């Protein structure tokens, strides 16, 4: 459009020719965005569109494929297995995300304070777990959680105590929260730390002249300055919580009775699709889950930005 | 994981579903068009003469030698043996390939419990016209019942898993405990072992669908009745009740080790004596020899403990067959290979390599029965397995969608292993979930 207007001012043509050129140049514009639109449509819109299309059908072992309209959605919205999973990740979100972001924030502030020896070592070592693939991390923790031959078992044996089984039904979610926290504290710390690095030093100098203490600087300068980074990290974490899959999926092999096939909505979608061959219903659950995630993430973003 | 957008996940699921669904869409035509003309033994012989390529999906290791022998006997035939995964993994791949109408093998290994899922979808060929009928009496009754329905023969039995009781004699001797012959004695032995050494458990069990259904089978239960698309599921029959009552005692008193089968901890437990017995199929010895080599000589084999004193009842656990998918490109050759691998010299060669036969001739051969197992201290274990095979309850049926049902076993029955939920309640919950799935899939369930 900018291109069009600059040309138009250079030599004002008659009306008819302008319209012709407008069409031609509009086409040129499409030429620029075309490659992007094509890729976007192919890898982004088409799969979603196809998932929606799939969700309108039902395929049965007896009777084959038939169009069922919105029946699958009706079923998903009243499916206790889906809602159980959703409630579970909701609880996970309410407890694990504040803990994880709180720790990440503390570490970021500590490193940024400049009062820490071996700052670089500290920063790298806290970030390191993020470099470990989630599957490997879950396996490592899974071995440690073992009450027979794992670390928990060894502690029990060495001290003659009986620690509660971390993979029992009542503790499994907390144990997964522990793994996820371990994995992502470093990642979130880095987001906060990089936001802190761009705070202009003149603000700190001004605070020092005003006689502000370290806590006052944190409260009045650092935290307000990284508010948008906190909002972003929160949104990532919300999405991540709703998508919980790798950790429970790996630990399921170790604790099949505690971590059920509908433990999280994603795990449920997976087992519907691969064990049950219910691809249509799996697509429906995935869409419902996507919409719920988008709504909550958007609400958090609106709220976070409004205050800022 | 945490940085991905939710839409990306949606996309991924959509792509996965796309593949599977497009597959389904094309599949129906291929399946219908596949049954052009009937082939008989003549066509099979002609196909062997003409030659060609047979693709076989199987994880059974003894088939390698069979494939070589087959190629040697029929030089124009080329056998491609592919390991497309074990159990569920292979079935998922197979189901998708069958639905897609392309990429499916000519011959596929399918466990007995899973065969129903393929026959109900009419995705495997009826082998009776090819000449399979003449083998009806060459197989033992358990496997044969699993592969045929009325006159149709959907697969040829490759091996079988009549159950037996494996026990660590060293542990039993050390604590002076009698080897149980009934399940009541088994519970007694479990208590005594655990009391003598709190580290020792009579067995490991974290809830296994295959083992549970097999023991109900042995107890004379018939929780599943399938007649075409008519399915009945009832876990309140006498067999199921008997099983649940006994197993509940073991769970209540925490006499079962919470170790998952096939895990490292499991192999360790079998080796060091902390898991003192194993109730499973006759295919186990090869796994003992390779996975628990250090305990060689400690273990022995005994007949299954009985539900009724003095009984001889047995059941199958595991075992698989060779089936020919309807979409196979060269069904005559496929049948020829399946027949070669499951009967006659093919079967004998596999037995020599350690497979447990489903053929009467091999099962009754003197060489087989007299084989001494060094791992079991020179015991002639095959005699026990053979007797078990002869006593397998013959009218057992699985669900036509047992693969799915087994995948939700731990969601339902598993609760009894980790919470105050009773086993009978767990079985009821499993029944309800299986009924729901069956109805969703268009079966007539419990009507």
UniProtKB/TrEMBL annotation, chain A:
SUPFAM superfamilies: MetI-like
Keyword annotations from UniProtKB, A to Z: Cell membrane, Membrane, Sugar transport, Transmembrane, Transmembrane helix, Transport
InterPro entries: MetI-like (IPR000515), MetI-like_sf (IPR035906), UgpAE/MalFG_permease (IPR050809)
Transmembrane segments: 27-53, 89-109, 121-144, 171-193, 225-245, 281-300
Keyword NAD carried by entry: no
Origin: domain of life: Bacteria
Localization per Swiss-Prot or TrEMBL: Cell membrane
Residue ranges constituting the ABC transmembrane type-1 domain according to the UniProt record: 86-300
Bilayer topology term: Multi-pass membrane protein
Pfam families linked to this entry: BPD_transp_1
Single GO BP term: transmembrane transport
Coiled coil: none
Cellular component terms (Gene Ontology): plasma membrane
Cross-referenced CDD domains: TM_PBP2
Signal sequence segment: none
PANTHER family: BLL4140 PROTEIN (PTHR43227), DIACETYLCHITOBIOSE UPTAKE SYSTEM PERMEASE PROTEIN DASB (PTHR43227:SF8)
Family indicated by similarity: Belongs to the binding-protein-dependent transport system permease family.
The name this protein goes by in its record: Multiple sugar transport system permease protein
Automatic annotation (TrEMBL), chain B:
Pfam families in alphabetical order: SBP_bac_1 (PF01547)
Keyword line: Signal, Sugar transport, Transport
InterPro entries referenced in this protein's UniProt entry, alphabetically: Bact_solute-bd_prot1 (IPR050490), SBP (IPR006059), SBP_1_CS (IPR006061)
Signal peptide: 1-25
Keyword Transport in record: yes
Domain of life from the UniProt record: Bacteria
Family designation: Belongs to the bacterial solute-binding protein 1 family.
Name of the protein in its database record: Multiple sugar transport system substrate-binding protein
Origin species: Streptomyces nymphaeiformis
